[in-house]
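Re: folding output
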Amino acid sequence: MLGLLSGGATLIFGWRVKSARYWILGSVLLMVTGEFLLSVIYFWPRNTIMFTEGTAVHSAAYLQQTAQEFQMGHWLRVGASAVASMLAFTGFLRLYRDRISARIRREISPTDFREEP
């Protein structure tokens, strides 16, 4: 949850930097999709099958299949988190580059490049 909040705050405060905007937006959307939506749609039903209903309702073979599906989904979530991290890192590098470029532009005024007569 903290990752989503900090990602959203970064997106809001860094929105004016167009070169970073979509990298950070992609990261936040991937975090929402990979963490929240995948959990609600994919993991919660499997948790119910494995831990709430268990062997009282399902066979051991079905529970084993459900556990394998859960593990496969987990690796998908890990991969999505890795891609989201790369997108966020790229966005932060773009924000940093924009900030450094702005600082250099302020320090070097156009009058510094006048030709001598």
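--- second protein (sequence, then structure) ---
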Amino acid sequence: MPFPSVAAAAATTLAGLWWRIVAVAGLIAVADVALQRRRFTTKLRMTPREVRDERIETDGKPETKARRRAVGARRVRALSIAAIRRATAVVTNPTHVAVALRYAPPRLDVPVVVARGAGLAAGMVRAAAEMHDVPIMESPDLARALYARVDVDGPIPEECYVAVAAVFAWILRTRGRLGGAEEASPR
């Protein structure tokens, strides 16, 4: 066999072998990519314990959420619309705090807080007061002091007597009477 034909046959054989090697290497690469991707996604999966821990980290502990929900429910219960209807006056700072006061001498010697609210609840107190024609007076310092110191159905502290008396004096000057909707409507 002459050399050129041997060289041509060897080149053809080597070229065929080369393409087979490339094809096998390509198949191995595709299989390896699929295997690596599967291992990576499996590695990213969280155990049930990790899922629980992450949920607690983002949402908070269930006990804390339940406690927060209970406090919110207690605040809503404390915000009685019927009590606001019987209020003598509502003292507010413009938007954040509202305290409804009731004063009915001789039955009540000292004014008492019948409802109070902060934030959204303050808006609800104010709206209920407007709906029942209860006088609303803006007195930020007094509203904050009463909200901080007095719970619902609690008497106002002695330090607030003068300021609350000024509120009731304002009501007497503007309305000519002291009393909530309960006294205004005969039964």
